Amino acid sequence: MDPLLDEKIIITFSQIIPEYFYETYQLIFKREAFGPSLNEGICYEFVSSIDFSGDISGKLFLCMDGATKLKILPYLSKNHHIDTYQKGMANSILMEIMNQIASMFSEEFSYAKISIKIHPPEIFNNTLYKVNFEIYRQYMLIFNVFYESNLIGRVYFIILLEK
């Protein structure tokens, strides 16, 4: 366990996420809180997860409640030219976002010669994902999401890093 590496990972995600959403969707992600977490389970109305392995291994979760998902989807679907009301399209868009964020994370660490492989995303909507603290350290980033000055909702990124 390297606390400095964990801090670099948190800082990297804290930088990548707001930049990605602003540049791609003109949504403003203001970090409200971040830090270690001891939540024994992850369960939200919407949860997308992506695994990464290599020199750094773990999981990244994108979580939000149903109201936030309904409010944020119109902004996300504009760029993808997809009807979000078509079955499965909302999850597809949000999984693609996870792919892009994880790829940016991997690319950022590749500059430091740290190899990270990204695996396909998964959906855990309304399902309890139990966190095994014998294997993982858990960190949480909480963002308030705005379009212009209007609050859309709150989005949670949970990072599990292998010990």
Would you give an account of this structure?
The protein has helices at residues 3-25, 66-80, 89-110; strands at 28-36, 41-42, 46-54, 58-64, 116-118, 122-123, 129-130, 136-147, 150-162. It contains three helices and nine strands.
Principal-axis shape:
globular
Radius of gyration: 15 Å
Give the helix proportion (percent range). Answer: 25-40%
Q: Class by helix and strand content? A: alpha+beta
Number of helices: 3
Mean pLDDT metric: 92
**Main beta sheet strand tally, sense and closure:** 7 strands, antiparallel
Low-confidence stretches: none
Order of helices and strands: HEEEEHHEEEEE
Number of strands: 9
Distance linking N and C termini: 6 Å
Percent strand: 35-45%
Give the arrangement of secondary structure elements:
Elements: H1 3-25, E1 28-36, E2 41-42, E3 46-54, E4 58-64, H2 66-80, H3 89-110, E5 116-118, E6 122-123, E7 129-130, E8 136-147, E9 150-162
Antiparallel strand pairs: 1-8, 2-7, 3-4, 3-5, 3-6, 4-9, 8-9
Helix pairs in contact: 1-3
Features:
alpha+beta, 163 residues, seven-stranded antiparallel β-sheet, 3 helices, two-stranded antiparallel ribbon, single chain, 36% strand
